[in-house]
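Please check this record.
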Amino acid sequence: MQDTQGITAIPQNTRSFTTERGRAIAEALEPYRAGLPAELVELTERQVFPYLIPASLRTGRDSRRTGELLGRQAPCYVKRGRSVRYRLKDVLNWLADGDTYGSTAEALHAVQAKGVA
């Protein structure tokens, strides 16, 4: 599902989540569901890691220093005083730009072709 800016739209039924993760995601996305554009919705690092991006909070913090997250360029962030925020648009774009594979063998071949393994 895509919205008018080409960003993957968030399902409206996130209110039905009952897990801690689901509640955290639903709360974080409330402004977006209320109509605020994705480029204006800012999430805390605790809302992004591990709930939207599957990495630990520590890995997310390290990625700001190294510029790399899970083997590719880290998503952009915004500094507000001492606070770090991630724009929803940047997180969604980072997730959408990930490599996709049809099988583990295909993924292994791609990694070997890059010379990483």
